[in-house]
Amino acid sequence: MDLLREIFGVVCGRGHLCLVGGVALPFCQRCAGLYAGCVWAAICWLAFRPRPGRRVLWIHTGFLLIMAPFGYHWVQHGEAIRILTGYLFAVGLVYLLALNPAEQYRRREGRTRNEFLYFSAVSAGAPLLLAAIYWGGERTAVALSIAGAAGLLLYFVLVIANLIVLPRIAWQALRSRLKHA
Amino acid sequence: MERRNGLHVFLGLIALVGLAMFILACTGWPGWSPDGSKIVFPYADAVAKRNGVAHYDLATGKVTSVFQLVDGIPFPQFSADGKRLLIGWIAMENNRVNRFEMLTLPYGSDKPMRHFVLPTITETNEVPQNPYPEVNGNVFVASTYVARITLESGEVLRKDLEPQQYIYIFPRGDQVIYARMYTLPAKEGEEAKSGDDKDACEFGEVDQQTLDRKPWFTIKSDDMVVRNVDELSWVPVFHPGTEEFAMLARKGDSETLAFFSRNGFERFVPLTLQGPEWQLGLFMQWSLDGKTLYAPLLAKTQTDGLYDYAVAEINDRGEMHTIPIARVSKRGDWADSFSYYLRVSLSPDGKKLATSTAYLPEEAVADVDRALFVVDLTDPAHKTTKVLAPVTPRPGGPTTSVNPPETPRQPPVEDPQSTPAPKEP
Q1: pTM for the predicted model, two decimal places
Q2: What percentage of chain B has pLDDT greater than the value 70?
Q3: Which helix (H) or strand (E) holds B134?
Q4: Using CB atoms, which residue from A6, A16, A97 is nearest to B15?
């Protein structure tokens, strides 16, 4: 746990500490939603792979935008909202960060039915996370900390993947334009 | 297809930027730098007859004076991004508090220096004290008004309170919490209370946009919690993991913690003080895991007027362990409000604790103990590093001990045991 605190100390100021079963998680309440929620969001995405249609893209973009009024404190809120906004932000981030690398390396075959299952699973994650935080014991705290660490690693992988893929896509688009010019 | 790819690339970039912004946004006396590598603290230079702000680098051990005032009490802290030093001070006139000023100095950055002068305070002697809450680049200051200073633009927004009103504000993560002391209207047949006789305290949150107050609850002198105690500190100490805060209360010779939430009083937790007339300071701080409370402590010695200043480490059962700091003398009236001179401050990672005697009056502490003390909380023995304040050397050499208040002033006397520790059972 001390090691995790050291690691998360770099990315999280722990302004609102997240306590589970009397144990302080190595990150704050909002980051609990972001990092621990990332793991569930990634599992849902891998399981159902909803197609990036207009509706799906708008919903995930909305999950990112919803952070603005709460992150900038335009709206007063408490612990539950911090966790939920962090979780929704994680869902949006995972989908949009996985979007381009997945299209480059794996053909998407999602069907409409997957969309429904995906959002159902994602929706179920929110109350599960809240329940774990509010009613969990020390073991839950350890599990959430480990999930958070896994989430942080996942974001790192997704960021690296995007940093590789996005310039490649941009280069391909530019070459195509120059060819047709 | 190309159009869709373009949209996906755009959203991917948005996600990258969003993640970066999230991480960047998430990241007392003495004041720690955000990375925990530097400390700023006020000090009193009796020989030069001025007060100043000292800067201590933990890595190099170097301490320097970065700001000096001939007349005034400086309150320094780092800005949240570590790129500025914020130094507030109270300008006095005719021994009364006159106005509050703040200087923002660039620290390792090219930010411009700015000087703010806030209104004259004439009705009360209540002064804005640090730590000044800082949220999203706005610093908040309050006494008979609430002011918001935007560090980047230099814009100041101020909202005055009603006459004879003043509030204290406290940072709590991204919130600005206030405590407003006021006098209840006299009941029928009762004499109206004097202006200084406050018998109610309202707690709430300051709206950071409008500077309006959003009250939570009020404690009145005839409320149950107050009837059960002789004295309540009115200085909230916020628990890091819950919505609760605690205040120090005294009943007879016993100290206790009174816990409150947004709804009001929750419970008492009695504290086990190890000696008679031990006094805890008001400005305490929780450890990051919320299990330990750190507080300044004055422990009476066998000599009247001499106290051992220590840091009290209090667990969740109210049991106390003490970390000795220095011996001090209660000469002068500073001891009645010692909480404003002696405070504790945890490093951002919670592994170190800083406290300072450097601002005490001249005769309250020996020159060899006028220092910043940094305690390593990860060390079972709580190894303490003493960093002497950068004061002007005293002709004839530094004093090495303090005398009890009744003793006439004498030249410095060698005393090898200038910092005895409070004895634990």
Answers
A1: 0.67
A2: 82
A3: strand B134-135
A4: A97
